[in-house]
Fold:
Amino acid sequence: MANVPVHEWTLLEAARKVREKEISSRELTGALLSRIESLDPKVHAYITVLPEAAMAQAAACDGEQAKGTVRGPLHGVPVGLKDIFCTRGVRTTCGSGILGNFEPPYDACVTGKVLAAGAVLLGKHNMDEFAMGSSTETSRFGPTRNPWDLSRIPGGSSGGTAAAVAAAMCFAGVGTDTGGSIRQPASLCGVVGVKPTYGRVSRYGMIAFASSLDQAGPIARTVADAAALLGWIAGYDRRDSTCVDTPVPDYLAAVQRPVKGLRVGLPKEYYEGDGLSREVRAAVEKALKALTDQGAAVVEVSLPHTSFALSTYYLIAPAEASSNLARYDGVRYGYRAGGATGLIEMMSRTRAEGFGEEVKRRIMIGTYALSAGYYDAFYGKAQKVRTLIRADFARAFEAADVLLTPTAPTPAFRLGEKTGDPLTMYLSDIYTIPCNLAGIPGISVPCGLSGSGLPIGAQLLSNHFREETLFTAAGAIERVLPWPRVAPLEG
Amino acid sequence: MAITREEVLHVARLARLSLPEAEADRLRVQLSAILDYVKQLDRLDTRDVVPTSHAVETGTPFRDDVVQPFGDKEAILANAPDRHNDFFRVPRIIED
Structure:
C-alpha cells in the first residue's frame, strides 16, 4: 500500500495508529500544526491556533499512554472546534468583534466531550459572525477561502471547520447548524457534515443564535469518521433543558449496513425550482443511482410547504436571535465602547460597534417581528407555518425511510458575489432550512465534482432520531462514489 | 411592505443599536425587501393551525431547586470590561 501522508489519514485511522503506538500524539499533532502553518495563511480556516497548548496536550497524552492509560477513543488525535463552542481559558469569539476578547470560564458540553474522548485541540475555526451567514464572509476576522478554489467561499456558517477538514488541517471538527451551517459548507468543501436531530447533542456552552433551531454536529472526511464522532458528542446533558434523554446508538455500525429495501424519497419540490444548477442535479442523480444499484427503492414524495420554509426561517431565526443577542451589552464581558456618559448610550454604542452588518440586520428584523402590533402577523404566523412544514415531513416519512435532495443549489460561489444582496445569500440555504424547522436530522455527503472541479454534496434527511439511516445511506453512496478526501491544495 | 425611516429608528432604539443616518436609510431599504419577501406567508390559511415553538416536544424538565456555586468567581470577573473589586462597573444609570 502506498504511503499515505499523515495528515490524510482518516480520524479513525489516526486514532488507531496512536492507540497501537505506530505514531505518537506529538508527531501527529506536530504534523498538523506545520500543515496549518503553511496552508492557513491562504485558507484562513482558524481564528485561533493553539500550537503550545496542543503540543502540551499531545505530550501529556503520550506520557499517559506510556504508563498504560488512554483518555478515550480519540486519545492524542488533533481536532478543531468552530469558534462558537466555549473553551475554558481559550478566547471564544463566535466570529464577532463583540466577543473579540472573551475567555470563557467554562467548557461547552461538546468541548468537554471531545476532550474527554482524548482529542487534542488544535484551535478554533472561523465562522460567520454569530453563525449568521452562508459564506463565512461575515466573520469579523476576515473570510475563509475554499481550499478547492481560493477565489471562492467555503460556505457557512461553519465554513472554517469545513475548510480545515477539507484541507487536512485537522482530522475532524464540530460545527453548528441552524439553517444549514454544517451541511452547506460540507457540501461546498467536499466533506461530510451532519446536523443531528434537535436535542441529540447538548447546546450547553454553545453560543446561541436561534435556540429552537441550533444543533451541533460533526464535520469529517468520511462517513465513518462523522458517525463515530457524533457518537462521542451526542447524549443527554441536564444543563440543556431541550437535550433529549434517549440512548445513543452505535452510529459507526450503521455505516456498513446494506441499503437493500431502503425506501428513498425524492421530494419533488426540491427538484422543481429553476435555481438548481444542472451540474448539481446530475451529481445528485449519481448518488441516487448508487443507492438503487445497491437495492434501495425510489418513491416520489411531496413536501408542499417547501416554498414557505425560507420565509418562516427568516422570521423565526432573527426573532430568536434578537432575544439571544440582547445579552451583549458591554456590562459583564466582551467589548465595551468607550466614552459614553450614560448606561443606555454605552450599550447602544457597544452593540453598534461590536456587531457587524448582517448581525445588526437580523437583530432589526427580529426585533421588528416581535414588536408590539407585529408579533401575530410575523412571528406567530411563522410558528404556525412551521407546524405545516413539520407535518409535511411526518407524512413523507410514512412513505420513505430517507429523503435524498441536493444540499445546496450550486457549487461554491465567488467571494463577494452575494454580499451585496442579503436575500440572494439566504437562497443558498433553501434545501437545508426545512430540516431545522422540522427538527429532523440531515447529512451532506460528497457525490461529485462540477466541470470546474468544485465539490457537490447530496443531502439525506431522515425522521427524528434516525441518524443511523442517514449513515447507512451515506455510507452506501460513499462506497460507490469514492472521493479524493483532501482538497488538492499545495503547501 | 414599506417600512418607514421612523420605524427603523424606533426598532433600533428597542434593540439598543445606535444607528448613523446613512445606515438607517440603507436598513430601511433592506428590511423592506426582506419583509416583502416574508409576507408570502399570508397566502397560507393558518386559522386552525397550532403554532410550533419547539420541533421536538420534550415537556418541561424539572430539577431540584438547589444552588450550585460556580466556584471560579475571578475567571468570570476577569472578563469584565470595567470592574470595581467584585462588582461590574457601568456608566451612570440615572440621568440628571
